[in-house]
Amino acid sequence: MASQPHDSSRHDNTLAVIRTLREQGPAARVDLGILNGISSATVTSISAELLQQGLIAELPPDTPRPSGRGRPKTLIQLAPEAACVICVKLSINELQLVVGDYSGQMQHSEHHSVATLALTPADLVALLEEKIAEVRSLALASHRRLVGICLAVQGVVASHSGTLIWSPALSFRNAALAPLLTERFGCPVLLENDANCIASVLATQPAYAGYPNLAVIMLGYGIGMSLLIDGVPFLGANGSAAEFGHSKYQPGGAQCACGKRGCVEAYAGDYALYRKAREVLELPAGDSAHPSEAQMQALTQLAMQGNPDAQRIFAEAGRALGYGMANLLALFNPDLVLVTGSGVRGYAAMQEAMQDAIDEALVSELIGPTRIVSCPWDRDMTCLGGIAITLQATDSQRLTES
Amino acid sequence: MASQPHDSSRHDNTLAVIRTLREQGPAARVDLGILNGISSATVTSISAELLQQGLIAELPPDTPRPSGRGRPKTLIQLAPEAACVICVKLSINELQLVVGDYSGQMQHSEHHSVATLALTPADLVALLEEKIAEVRSLALASHRRLVGICLAVQGVVASHSGTLIWSPALSFRNAALAPLLTERFGCPVLLENDANCIASVLATQPAYAGYPNLAVIMLGYGIGMSLLIDGVPFLGANGSAAEFGHSKYQPGGAQCACGKRGCVEAYAGDYALYRKAREVLELPAGDSAHPSEAQMQALTQLAMQGNPDAQRIFAEAGRALGYGMANLLALFNPDLVLVTGSGVRGYAAMQEAMQDAIDEALVSELIGPTRIVSCPWDRDMTCLGGIAITLQATDSQRLTES
DNA sequence: TGGATTTAATTTAGACCCTAAAATAAATAT
DNA sequence: ATATTTATTTTAGGGTCTAAATTAAATCCA
């Protein structure tokens, strides 16, 4: 007459406590209760279990406490050494590897220059295996158990099957990367879109919390997007992120890297801006189909300094972005649109034309209450997001299994 | 030492049982258990409560049973007389009122021709109050308790506040209709987008179930859309449906009813098709800015019969639709797109151009596994959906209160 | 210095809800 | 008539939560 715990409430509450600790840092049991709408008696019970499993630890009480009457709070925090995850970011000509501990903090980070477009599928897998093995030994040296690996890539991914469908960083398509790595390293491997990783981080920041429908647009070589509904990335049929960059501005318009014409990206992606600029401006030489950060900064400088040709190019990009945004607003009607990515460097030069385009495209009733703001770009954010997503996935998995 | 039932599982299970009965009709306790993943002991307990409240009834056992061994199933069903709801559909020049019983069946339906565009806000409210009062007395005559009213309208609605933001059927904007009617009739009044109503019905049909991300496009005078995620309408910041019709095909293009240019609707809405057609074809006279069903059928006939001018017009509309669809696929990546509404009459004449436009706009990786199919149009579907939504809302409310 | 007060964490007692198993019910098969 | 089968109800018990009571650990104040 026993029963399996078909009841999910303990499971949910445990996850909520862990998530709160990871997002907000050390907290007292009372506060964890209030924050998650459960009684502190329950938090006591949950934290006892987690302590016993070594996943959390009590903070020594000598920490500077907010003075006040009453028994002082005993803060609990995630035990960093309880586990670790590795996040690998694959972007054009670069590979970043980051090790994160169980509290979600970055433990180690390294960058490698790689001619990604020249890789074959086998090359890529070999490279990933080699580099991951290296950082894994680092992690294992400090007695941390590797519980998951995350591959964060630009492009279209089928996250459920772990297949990379298409990425601007690679010259091949449809590679089932995750299953191969799972087998090699014996732990779950997630394949995630880079925009989803960043959006997951941004959504937890106080400034952007409280917006149930959030769109994060990533400007860069290409243009990506993530749609978060109540903080969780919306994955369509593909299991991929939304492809804002390939929504249309002008049927039959400019040539896009995807092979089609008229995509927003073909006007506002780095390569598109640089391509146009080279026609009329003196700019640093180099692979202008894949402009470097230095090249893009040179171009952006020109626009900021008032060069009319450069300004015209950014304005046209802003207009394309604005029309894309108009479609996003009409179809998705988000509460907040965040514009970020390395391409925000040129946002100031695009913003006015973008806003004009939105006003030209949509009646105010359809623009609704949506706010559009830009947000500074941090190159480590992708991996931090990947780490957070992976930890959350493995926590959830562990609880459902046991 | 008592506790409020903060636990939601009974609540959820009760709603699930009611929903299953409403969608699938009479069912046995065992099957309700299997269908909803709960034990039949729990179903027994839940159905005992519902029987006691008079919300369900056991079917007399003399119904033709599927022969077989063992104790026969006792089917239970929702008690139609337990409650009723009224759904009012407001569309251009027409008002439909439907009474639905607790099982979700249509009890009564009536149509009224009304020059909706000539109404003032006060006129509209007076008209609604009068007509609703009429059908309410019908319902009350059969001893049914009116538990909710649904207003289903074309256009943009803020469903949380009950404000009609903008509708093509009306010449004014921003009317807080629901609060007024709530006060007048003393029951919850929901304001819903018509596409959401229809989509809610379609999503429960076996043929379209099992698609977690479903887009329903409504062709008609204007073009509406509803996005369902796991069967529930996605409401953005506005609380409104997605406005596919006003996504852009051609910046600076054809004049749209919304006041802007280049919207998909300005090419593929009834008024847009008829406007173009009148330039080159002999067609029935009448208010060609608001073509009647007869006028649209005449135009559609011409295209079906091979008239090249008519065919060209539909092809251009299909192309606009295709580009809009491309953006929908890029941004939302639904599993299934259903095209319906009165405008499906012309779907055959648009389909090829539409498909070509999608292929022209998007690489196959971004089209992904999405299927696009049309679906026959039934003018009562909106109200049936409104009734289902309202019953579900009032059931849920009742349970959370008690 | 020592109670009074305040706040945090834990323990206790009880309610709710679910499930598996047992019991009961109601049919068909032989 | 009895065995078998399937549905429903009853029973017993476990899990989880919460409110209240208790315990713990500090400050306040005389």
Any overview of this molecule?
The structure is a homodimer of 402-residue chains. With 402 residues, chain A is an alpha/beta fold. Chain A folds into 3 domains: 9-61 and 72-78, Arc Repressor Mutant, subunit A (Orthogonal Bundle); 82-198 and 381-401, Nucleotidyltransferase, domain 5; 206-374, ATPase, nucleotide binding domain (Nucleotidyltransferase, domain 5, 2-Layer Sandwich), CATH 3.30.420.40. Chain A has 13 helices and 15 strands. In chain A, the strands form 4 sheets. Chain A has a 5-stranded mixed sheet, with helices on both faces. In chain A, strands 13-12-11-14-15 form a 5-stranded mixed sheet, with helices on one face. The radius of gyration of chain A is 23 Å and the shape is globular. Chain A starts with 8 loop residues before the first helix and ends with a helix. Chains A and B meet through β12, α10 and α11 of A and β12, α10 and α11 of B. Chains A, B: This is Xyl repressor. Chains A, B: It comes from Halomonas salipaludis. Chains A, B: It holds the Pfam family ROK.
